[in-house]
Protein 1
Amino acid sequence: HPNQKGYGMIANGFLDAINTLTGSSYEHVNIDNLVWDPTYGEDISGYATAGPSPLISKQAAESLENMFR
């Protein structure tokens, strides 16, 4: 399931389709104000991990954002 920023990206994709199909001009969700938090806000400090925290790279995040532009 997407996190806040992922849901914003999906919403923008839907808004693009709605605007195109209906000739409307709904504004995009400002995804810069949304959090890209792979832990969904859960405190993972007590969890054992085999490696680094499950973060995605800046390049991966940009690639995902560009899918909806």
Protein 2
Amino acid sequence: MEEVVIVIPDLYLTSAAEAASIRGIDLPGLARVARYGSGQVLEQGWRPWLAAWSGQGELAQSAPATVAAAASHTRADEAEGRMVWLATPVHLIAGLASVHLDARGLLQVDLDSRRALAQDFNTVFADSGFRLEALSSAGFLILGPRLNEADTVEPARILGSSVTEVLPEASTAPTLRRLVAEIEMWLHSHPVNAERARRRRLPVTALWLWGGGGAREGIALSVEPPLGSDMTDTVPASVVRGAALAATGTPVPGVAFGSDPYLHGLWRMSGSNVRAMPDHFDEALGHTSRRAVFVLELSQSFDEHRDWSIRDALADLDRRWVASALHALRRRDIGRVTVVANDHRLTLGSRDPWKLWRMPRPALTALQ
């Protein structure tokens, strides 16, 4: 295998307090990549970089929800003239002066619960013009009218911080602010939250709307059909684009593992599908693809281990995935390892560890 990419999509060291909470943590795998590898700042974040890496650079400027919509069940005719937003389940904490997004507040919600929430939303909010869809990957999409409203912020970027300054102002985004407030009231005593409480899970206090863009562009991306094909733009993008790539001999982007909605949409647009995360890294080496990408969410670890801190989750990720990838690199099973987090990329090739003159440095320093 030529390359393995490990993306940590919910690790952002955006505040001094956040960085201090994991200062001094021992991450031997990442430290080795940081010492011997090369780095790059990703000005636009990991999603546009991954789009280019997968050979779909034309999607780098597309909104995250637009790309994620390619893996939804919405038909192209339903998306005409509409917008989509990613709707991430979160746990907010109300303080004396402000509302914070809990440091562990990106929530994993099982598919049955997501479907129950979507069905109830579409009944309660039937006259609102918005429709909620439970994605098969994770989280939700909200389909609604086109709005010329303020930009939204990805919730992973503000974990542990106040949400007051990043929410769109009511004066500039009245429709979204009103919808968000109504969703919070709807969720307050929802049966799904009662069930989560019985299982000792944090309640879903809000759906964080972000990454909005045109729905139809993702659901029926305009691509040139294969010669002799009668496909039209009503065919899902995954079918049209996948057939076009096959006809031209263009390689698929590689094998992908994870539950991130953007990842699923991006791979669907290439005519491929994302796989469930394997139990062990070496299981991925059995695939015939030349490249592999893992999107590993710390929030998944928090859901599986309710007493873990971010230090525990990072140490586990480093041991199970980064260190395992480096073992495969030393065996020459793969050619290079790339780690992407906090808008940075670190890449270590098989020859790089010979750069013995490079001094050790804390693993997370290279990601800041």
